[in-house]
Amino acid sequence: MTAISLKELGGSYAIARLHHASAFPAWADGLGFVSISRTDDELSIVCLRERIPDGVQTDEDWIAFKFIGPFAFGQTGIVLSVIEPLSANGVGIFVVSTFDGDHLMVKQADRDRARALLGGAGHSLI
């Protein structure tokens, strides 16, 4: 299994869900990790919770870890090596991939448990 270094990002994150035809909202942009994905069913936005206005459907209280890479597109097992020990132990996850890397999100309530499980699986947390 591949050992990965993960950096915990500061702040409390949320995942917002908007109508699939919505424009990208200005409130989503700013410092911190941001991801915007559109499908035929929804527009999903991951960003710091403090940016999301009241009244927007959200799932809150997430923390984010950045995989420290870079990793080649063809390199396999990177994400699996991180999510497997969490999933096998009942820790819910949300993963976002970008061109240069991956980000793992877990609920704030699972932070310490996730860190222990990741460390026990041979990953480094910085």
Which SSEs are present, and which pair or pack?
Layout: E1 5-8, E2 13-18, E3 35-38, E4 43-48, E5 57-67, H1 78-87, E6 94-97, E7 102-107, H2 111-120, E8 124-125
Parallel strand pairs: 1-8
Antiparallel strand pairs: 1-5, 2-4, 2-5, 3-4, 5-7, 6-7
Describe the protein in words.
The longest helix has 10 residues, at 78-87. By secondary structure, the protein is an alpha+beta fold. The chain has helices at residues 78-87, 111-120; strands spanning 5-8, 13-18, 35-38, 43-48, 57-67, 94-97, 102-107, 124-125. A hairpin with a 4-residue loop joins β3 and β4. Strands 1, 2, 3, 4, 5, 6, 7 and 8 form an 8-stranded mixed β-sheet that branches.
Rg for CA atoms: 15 Å
Tally the beta strands: 8
Q: What form results from the Cα inertia axes?
A: globular
Percent of sequence in beta strands:
25-35%
Characterize the biggest β-sheet.
8 strands, mixed
The overall average pLDDT, rounded, is 95
Query: What share of residues is helical?
Result: 10-25%
The chain-level structural class is alpha+beta
Q: N-to-C SSE series?
A: EEEEEHEEHE
